[in-house]
């Protein structure tokens, strides 16, 4: 076995990512609270509840954990329903809490990356039609102005909207997220409003903070046709690739939102990203399935032979990470891996998954593609949307009954990587020996 250390570029950001509703607890003024209290929406009727109790102050101890284990950045999100509890009311105290979080990170030498929208909306907004209503663009802009004015002293890295593609598909196509609809026309209308909202936010943040770096985070899904001889597999993969992966990032580059089935011109969105944020988790094989209810959604299967996460949610396909970065490189912008991780309560696959995915990030960085950082999802187990607490993505585990954190072996692997700014054969041998041959093949 060859002995080596693969180093990352100087100044590389190493962090974890979280989002408000998933970690804060007691968010009772947003649409997910309503969703969780609607029977049948969340697995086993589970609720976010106290989550990781960040709103009760435990963010501080979790930031201690991140800092002590060598992280120099953290991605967190702002809960719109806390900042603006009613259409005509701003909560300055809530704004201060986020200001404290950003300042605290900065003082620790950890760059704050602030997400402005991560799936949740204030109840009052949804009562006005939410993202189906074009008015929401202006309402979002006002909220962004408020937050950016308050946080610009401490934070200059911004994600406007997290995974607009997942937000649209889960909320308006699959129906697993609120508002739980199955309506492609509405889905496309929401997509367009999100592009407009991103563009407005981009301009406001730059007006307030000229040095800001503003982007969004796309959920890049690697989609591979199952059978070369079957043109419909390829066609289905192309449609999904355009609708899901490309549409949004291309729209905020060119000002044209091309959803394959429909094109909308949004000229004000052209050139409104300073970096491209990539959330990569896994790959799907696309295989025409005429027996499924929905030809697009039911034609995806797990890649054969890949190791699977405990609930079968994520297949370990590191090559897809490389593919996502190659695709991102096509935008000719700096790249941040804004999320990557695996649900794995026993932590049996996570060390290997992490090492193998970071190896691919390192390969891509060696082509001088401008990869600036990596944020592992997540710091501590948190509420996984419609999958509730059945999926555990944390480096640290969480006992929800006691709020006790459980240090998984992956904590130590990731700490060694962050501190070294690199990944070595020694680390892989110690934490993920199964990955040794793939990452450090015999000479
Ligand atoms: C992403 C979401 C994030 C988390 C991870 C596992 O799609 O952005 O909130 O749920 O998946």
Characterize the structure shown.
By secondary structure, the chain is of the alpha/beta class. The chain has one domain (9-219, 242-281, 309-409): Alpha-Beta Barrel (TIM Barrel), CATH 3.20.20. It has helices spanning 20-23, 31-36, 54-68, 80-83, 92-107, 123-127, 136-151, 164-174, 184-208, 231-254, 318-329, 350-365, 409-420, 425-431, 436-439, and strands at residues 5-7, 13-17, 73-77, 111-117, 157-162, 213-225, 256-258, 263-265, 276-286, 300-301, 335-339, 371-376, 396-399, 404-407, 422-424. The longest helix is centred in the middle third of the chain and has 25 residues, at 184-208. It is globular and about 65 Å long. The relative contact order is 0.15. The mean pLDDT is 97. The structure holds beta-D-fucopyranose (FCB).
């Amino acid at each position: 076995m060859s002995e080596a250390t693969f180093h990352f570029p100087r100044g590389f950001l190493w962090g974890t990512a979280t989002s408000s509703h998933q970690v804060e607890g007691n968010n009772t003024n947003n649409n997910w609270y309503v969703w969780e209290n609607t029977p049948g929406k969340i697995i086993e009727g589970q609720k976010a509840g106290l989550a990781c109790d960040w709103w009760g102050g435990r963010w501080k101890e979790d930031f201690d954990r991140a800092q002590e284990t060598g992280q120099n950045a953290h991605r967190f999100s702002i809960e719109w329903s806390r900042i603006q509890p009613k259409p005509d009311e701003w909560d300055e105290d809530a704004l201060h809490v986020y200001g404290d979080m950003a300042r605290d990170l900065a003082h620790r030498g950890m760059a704050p990356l602030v997400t402005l929208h991560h799936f949740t909306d204030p109840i009052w907004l949804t009562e006005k039609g939410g993202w189906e209503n074009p008015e929401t663009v202006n309402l979002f802009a006002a909220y962004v102005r408020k937050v950016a004015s308050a946080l610009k002293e401490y934070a200059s890295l911004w994600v406007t909207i997290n995974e607009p593609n997942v937000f649209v598909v889960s909320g308006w196509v699959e129906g697993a997220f609120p508002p739980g609809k199955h309506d492609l026309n509405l889905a496309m209308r929401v997509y367009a409003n999100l592009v407009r909202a991103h563009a407005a936010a981009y301009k406001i943040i730059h007006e307030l903070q000229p040095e800001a770096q503003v982007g969004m985070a796309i959920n890049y899904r690697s989609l591979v046709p199952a059978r070369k001889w079957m043109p419909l597999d390829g066609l289905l993969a192309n449609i999904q690739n355009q609708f899901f992966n490309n549409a949004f990032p291309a729209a905020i580059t060119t000002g044209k939102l091309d959803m394959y089935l429909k094109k909308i011109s949004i000229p004000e969105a052209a050139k409104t990203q300073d970096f491209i944020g990539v959330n990569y988790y896994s790959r799907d094989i696309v295989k025409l399935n005429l027996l499924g209810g929905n030809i697009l959604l039911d034609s995806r299967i797990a890649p054969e032979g890949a190791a699977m996460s405990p609930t079968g949610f994520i297949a370990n396909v590191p090559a897809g990470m490389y593919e996502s970065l190659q695709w991102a490189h096509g935008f000719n912008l700096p790249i941040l891996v804004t999320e990557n991780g695996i649900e794995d309560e026993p932590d049996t696959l996570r060390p290997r998954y992490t090492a193998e995915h970071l190896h691919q990030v390192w390969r891509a960085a060696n082509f001088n593609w401008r990869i600036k950082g990596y944020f592992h999802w997540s710091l501590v187990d948190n509420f996984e949307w419609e999958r509730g607490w059945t999926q555990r993505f944390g480096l640290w585990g969480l006992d929800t009954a006691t709020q006790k954190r459980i240090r998984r072996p992956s904590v130590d692997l990731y700490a060694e990587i962050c501190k070294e700014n690199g990944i070595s054969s020694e680390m892989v041998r110690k934490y993920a020996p199964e990955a040794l041959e793939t990452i450090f093949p015999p000479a």
